[in-house]
Design brief:
Elements: E1 2-16, E2 22-32, E3 40-41, E4 46-47, E5 51-55, H1 59-66, E6 70-81, E7 84-94, H2 101-108
Antiparallel strand pairs: 1-2, 1-6, 2-5, 3-4, 6-7
């Protein structure tokens, strides 16, 4: 299953756990395009909450080259987590930036 998303932020982490194991990667916050029209509403949450995914630490450099926030096309795959089947991002391709009147004017300066 494919979907277009807006990547809101990418943060990297790299630390050593108490057992000596090294943990590193990127926390990617994103929002599926088109979903903002149907905000969540429950007893404990109002509005639209972004999704979170983890990527390898090398993803940070890719994202830095593209610039964040940005648009991307993701492919979801099913994975098992705590005994449940969940959708996670299995692949991601950055989409080209769309030229707007504002950034065309800025580029001419």
């Amino acid at each position: 299953m494919e979907n277009e998303v807006i990547i809101l932020s990418v943060g990297c982490y790299d630390f050593e756990q108490s057992d000596g194991k090294r943990v590193s990667g990127c926390k990617v916050m994103y929002y599926p395009v088109g979903s903002i029209d149907t905000p969540l509403e429950s007893d404990r949450l109002l509005g639209a909450e972004p999704c979170k995914e983890t990527f390898p630490l090398s993803f940070f450099d890719r994202a830095k080259e593209v610039g964040i926030p940005c648009r991307a096309k993701v492919t979801y795959v099913m994975r098992q987590s705590q005994g449940k089947q969940i959708l996670v991002i299995g692949g991601l391709d950055f989409l080209p930036r769309v030229e707007t009147k504002n950034n065309i004017k800025e580029n001419k300066k």
